[in-house]
UniProtKB/TrEMBL annotation, chain A:
Name of the protein in question: Electron transfer flavoprotein subunit alpha/FixB family protein
Domain Electron transfer flavoprotein alpha/beta-subunit N-terminal: 9-209
SMART domains xrefs: ETF
Domain of life from the UniProt record: Bacteria
TrEMBL record, chain B:
The Acyl-CoA oxidase/dehydrogenase middle domain, residue ranges: 122-221
Cited InterPro entries: Acyl-CoA_DH_CS (IPR006089), Acyl-CoA_Oxase/DH_mid-dom (IPR006091), Acyl-CoA_Oxase/DH_mid-dom_sf (IPR046373), AcylCo_DH-like_C (IPR036250), AcylCo_DH/oxidase_C (IPR009075), AcylCoA_DH/ox_N (IPR013786), AcylCoA_DH/ox_N_sf (IPR037069), AcylCoA_DH/oxidase_NM_dom_sf (IPR009100)
Record-stated family: Belongs to the acyl-CoA dehydrogenase family.
Ranges annotated as spanning the membrane: none
Cofactor: FAD
Keyword Flavoprotein attached: yes
Record-annotated Acyl-CoA dehydrogenase/oxidase N-terminal domain positions: 7-118
Protein name: Acyl-CoA dehydrogenase
Pfam assignment, any one: Acyl-CoA_dh_N
Protein species of origin: Anaerostipes hominis
Automatic annotation (TrEMBL), chain C:
Domain Electron transfer flavoprotein alpha/beta-subunit N-terminal residue range list: 22-210
SMART domains: ETF
Protein name as it appears in the record: Electron transfer flavoprotein small subunit
A GO term, aspect molecular function: electron transfer activity
Record-linked Pfam families: ETF (PF01012)
Length: 345, 383, 260
């Protein structure tokens, strides 16, 4: 079968408890850009039980078509029936590009589906664009056009690689949540809805869900946080960490700290960032009242955006901060929290 | 001649380093500050086989060689001198003499529990009036029927009170040698809890403050006849041979302390700024570091050579003495320089080098002072 | 019970990342370690060994040097080690890696296969689920707890906001999270034994039911178009403003970067 038979940009529209996940809208936003470059349309694949009603919402965020696979076997996420559903959609409708969120579901589903349909999969992409492969034409070698170029960090964020999947279809990628932009909602938009059911027959690969336990422990791992509000000795006292906690809360982030704070007994070691603590790579790292000793910086310099607030303008933290603010954290932090409350829903 | 470590030894080093970083280093300051014997660490070391490294597998040990044991003490001491000496005293001063001089029954009875760390070992030679000079011994052991009766005391005993098994040196009679009356000295194995065996005061020390240093007191302490270690009258030789091994252990501790201080200093000088530059950019700092590193490397070669000698030679007194003499003096010098390069911070307890310098001093003193090591070395040169 | 644990030797990116003077990653200076998630998977297997007397085989694919992670695993308590190494297997992406490992596993008896969730060098989390697909067995990813119940495994499968208690019939593949447990240390004697033991070495010809089209660089559907070491970030902007202006400045930047 020729690769040219594969058409359209598809996204896996993840839903949990019959509520669409944010990543579904982010993927649609990106898919629209890609579809425009390829002069094709965007299809959302909606898998679940009694989820058909969600199709309009997907249309509002940019889906031209919605393929709904609706079956009681698909009520809770399980690898096998979801893999069967998505792989069957791919085999039936032959998309050129298949995007999946790099979530705890997508990072399980993506690889299993890619193995079943025998194509490549690029994980945790942060940039997706259409271009040529090889990027620069090599004499004697075919340069393919209109390829999906997938860029992702590797080696703990120390390198970046751009990857193509020139000889297999679909071109599959999982995409890091929070990176792509959803479009503004178009109220009243409608998509063509296609219902599809490949049939579900339980076999050895169907696992049994014995219990669903929501909202896991309150022990947070700062390594998983997208936003960290980190405090150093400059915060002044354990009580004053409250202003950091408030800021973290409004941003949906977590509080972490420097070694000095742990040594002073203000905070437990499991939220310590640095060489003797944890290495973190959040999207945003607020270094508040942290001087920025090497051992601390080693643990956080891979953050995408570093915002430092410190009253000492010679603090080494400013050498690594993207945005350094010389000033009084006691004034700035609470005011920032208040401002954010007005913008963040 | 091959200076490269085998893959086995490299991996063992990785293990000891990882354990030291994760389990020992976080407690080092506290152990020093509170003078608490690190019981939980000892328990963890026991679970991981660190207390039976050179003991053969048939006695429940790890079946490794002296070099592996040396690297263990070295890596532990890099982050905590106290933890290093606990393993050293246990292994070199208690397990080793039982393994070398014990009867099959004694080995079967004691080594498995010592190797697994179920029991901890210690060694009692020093007395208030007798250190390395064994003829000054006052503690007596008298055979009474099927029991030896011990009377006297031992001081500065590492792992004292915490240990379960003690190798004790005592006078068992007077012999005539070339017309001179000499004390006949023998070695014994004494279990903690034996009636008449108690502990005196705990010493408060300058360094290795978490190590438990006690006086041992024997008052009509009766132990079974079969607890005589080696032949009667051979105690002096046993003690000296045991100390040869012990000195390799202490040399490893000294080496570890020097390396730990050097590493901490390298990190520090890269970070600390004065006059707009890191102090590592000053030539004085660079040259000091070069000297420190060179001496550490020389000490390491001597210590590892002594460990290899213990594995392959019957007698290794000179190798052990040279390793201990040099490593201890290097430890003192390097830790002192480390404090100096840290400036005011080096004098503050928050910084590890302050503790390392205090810990290093003892390595020039115990298990034979540096002066005694020089006697051993020169005695061998001039014999 | 027989367990196969897949492990990978990776550069130690945590804490000890080394850079060249030009700001690029100095790979030569970085130590290699057993991938942390894989180590948690191994520990889970060793716990099952302690409890059920399971036999644990560790499997790795890599350069001959990857022998080290097998020795490490054996020094921790694994019974056997299998190294799959061959020039033709080099440059494999996750698809080619998973077909290769599946081809090796077909030669082994297993009730359970455990892999780490993901490797710290690639961070893809793909190889485990892909192996399970090739072997046509169930997969349970992101395991935070593993128990055995007769012929079944009962696993706590982690999601962002919940976990599922999932039961699957063996044989089954589980991907382990490093939060699953605290891996044990090697023992000194274990290290000596591991180096005295034999490690099985397999090449291309030893893989079972694997097509040449699916291995190595040539058999990898994904191709690298461009790779670059991320240039280390230097200092950004530094401002000294009064508090109100400072807050406005931060708000602007967060908006600009789509954080809010």
């Amino acid at each position: 079968m020729g690769l040219e038979e594969y058409k359209g940009v598809y996204v896996f529209a993840q839903q949990v408890d019959n509520e669409l996940s944010g990543i579904a809208f982010e993927l649609l936003g990106k898919a629209k850009d890609l579809a425009k470059d390829l002069d094709t349309d965007v299809t959302a694949v909606l898998i679940g039980s009694e989820v058909k009603d969600l199709a309009d919402e997907l249309a509002a965020y940019g889906a031209d078509k919605v393929i709904v696979v609706d079956d009681p076997e698909l009520k809770e996420y399980r690898t096998e029936p979801y893999t069967h559903a998505l792989a069957s959609v791919i085999n039936e409708y032959k998309p050129e590009i298949m995007l999946v969120g790099a979530t705890a579901i997508g990072r399980d589903l993506g690889p299993r589906v890619s193995a079943r349909v025998a194509t490549g999969l690029t994980a945790d992409c942060t940039v997706l664009e259409i271009g040529d492969f090889p990027l620069v034409a090599i004499p004697g070698k075919e340069q393919k056009h209109n390829q999906l170029l997938m860029t992702r960090p590797a080696f703990g964020g120390n390198t970046i690689a751009t990857i193509a999947c020139p000889d297999n279809r679909p071109q599959m990628a999982t995409v890091r949540p929070g990176v792509m932009q959803a479009i503004d909602k178009i109220e009243g938009a409608k998509a063509e809805v296609i219902e599809f059911n490949p049939g579900f027959t339980p076999d050895n690969k169907y696992v049994e869900i014995m219990e669903v336990v929501k909202s896991v422990t309150d022990v947070v791992d700062i390594m998983d946080a997208n936003i960290l509000v980190s405090g150093g000795r400059g915060v002044g006292s354990p009580e004053n960490f409250k202003i950091l906690e408030d800021l973290a809360e409004v941003l949906g982030g977590e509080v972490s700290c420097s070694r000095a704070v742990v040594d002073a007994g203000w905070k437990p070691r499991d939220i310590q960032v640095g060489q003797t603590g944890k290495t973190v790579r959040p999207n945003v790292y607020f270094a508040i009242g942290i001087s920025g000793a090497i051992q601390h910086v080693a643990g956080m310099e891979e953050a995408d955006i570093i915002v430092a607030i410190n009253k000492d303008d010679t603090a080494p933290i400013f050498d690594v901060a993207d945005y350094g603010i010389v000033g009084d954290l006691n004034k700035i932090v609470p005011m920032l929290t208040e401002q954010l409350k007005t913008v963040v829903k | 001649m091959d200076f490269a470590l085998s893959k086995k030894h490299e991996m063992a080093r990785t293990l000891f380093k990882e354990f030291a970083e994760n389990e020992v280093k976080p407690l080092a300051q506290d152990v020093d500050e509170t003078e608490q014997f690190p019981k939980e660490t000892v328990q963890k070391m026991a679970e991981n086989g660190f207390l039976g490294i050179p003991i053969p597998k048939e006695y429940g040990g790890q079946g490794c060689d002296p070099l592996t044991y040396v690297m263990c003490v070295e890596e532990l001491s890099k982050v905590c001198g106290t933890t290093g000496v606990i393993v050293s005293a246990h292994t070199s001063l208690c397990c080793d003499p039982i393994q070398t001089y014990g009867t099959e029954e004694q080995k079967k009875k004691y080594l498995p529990d010592l190797a697994s760390g179920k029991k901890l070992g210690a060694f009692g030679l020093t007395e208030p009036g007798a250190g390395t000079d064994a003829q000054g011994q006052q503690t007596k052991a008298v055979l009474d029927g099927n029991e030896w009766v011990l009377n006297g005391s031992k001081c500065f005993i590492t792992n004292g009170k915490e240990a379960d098994v003690y190798i004790v040196i005592a006078v068992t009679g007077i012999i005539e040698k070339r017309g001179r009356k000499l004390k006949e000295i023998s070695a014994f194995i004494v279990d903690k809890g034996t009636p008449g065996f108690s502990f005196g005061t705990k010493e408060k020390k300058m360094g290795i403050r978490g190590s438990s240093t006690y006086e041992l007191i024997f008052e009509d302490c009766r132990i079974p006849k079969e607890n005589l270690l080696g032949k009667q009258g051979k105690g002096f030789g046993i003690a000296m041979h045991t100390l040869d091994g012990g000195r390799i252990g202490i040399a490893s501790q000294a080496l570890g302390l020097a390396e730990g201080a050097l590493e901490a200093t390298i990190e520090y000088v890269k970070e600390r700024k004065q006059f707009g530059r890191t102090i590592g950019q000053f030539q004085n700092t660079q040259f000091q570091l070069a000297d420190m590193a060179t001496k550490v490397e020389a000490a390491k070669l001597l210590v590892y050579k002594a460990a290899m000698a213990k594995a392959t030679q019957k007698v290794y007194s000179v190798e052990a003495a040279m390793a201990k003499l040099y490593a201890a003096e290097v430890a003192m010098e390097v830790t002192t320089k480390a404090v100096q390069l840290h400036g005011g911070y080096g004098y503050i307890r928050e910084y590890d080098v302050e503790r390392m310098m205090r810990d290093a001093k003892i390595t020039e003193i115990y298990e034979g002072t540096s002066e005694v090591q020089r006697m051993v070395i020169s005695g061998n040169l001039l014999k | 019970m027989k367990i196969v644990v897949c492990v990978k030797q990776v550069p130690d990116t945590k804490g000890g990342v080394k850079f060249n003077p030009d700001g690029t990653l100095d790979r030569g200076a970085m130590l290699t370690i057993m991938n942390p998630d894989d180590k948690a998977g191994l520990e889970a297997a060793l716990k099952l060994k302690d409890e059920y007397d399971a036999e644990v085989t560790v499997l790795t694919m890599g350069l001959p040097k990857a022998d080290e992670v097998l020795r490490e695993a054996m020094a921790m308590g694994a019974d056997k080690g299998v190294l799959v190494t061959d020039r033709v297997l080099g440059g494999a992406d996750t698809w080619a890696t998973s077909t290769t490992l599946a081809g090796a596993i077909r030669n082994l008896d297993y009730d359970l296969i455990i892999t780490g969730r993901q490797a710290i060098d690639g961070d893809t989390a793909q190889v485990g689920p892909q192996i399970s697909e090739h072997l046509d067995i169930p997969v349970i990813s992101y395991a935070q707890d593993i128990k055995i119940d007769g012929d079944n495994v009962v696993v706590e499968r982690q999601y962002e906001d919940r976990y599922h208690v999932v039961k699957a019939k063996m044989p089954c593949l589980i991907t382990a999270l490093s939060e699953l447990n605290e891996p044990r240390y090697m023992t000194p004697g274990g290290i000596f034994d591991a180096y005295d033991a034999e490690v099985t070495v397999w090449g291309r010809k030893d893989l079972k039911d694997v097509d040449d089209a699916n291995i190595g660089l040539a058999g990898s559907p994904t191709k690298i178009a461009k790779a670059s070491d991320k240039v280390r970030k230097g200092a950004g902007e530094k401002v000294t403003l009064d508090p109100e202006e400072s807050v406005a400045y931060i708000m602007d930047k967060l908006k600009e970067k789509h954080v809010i």
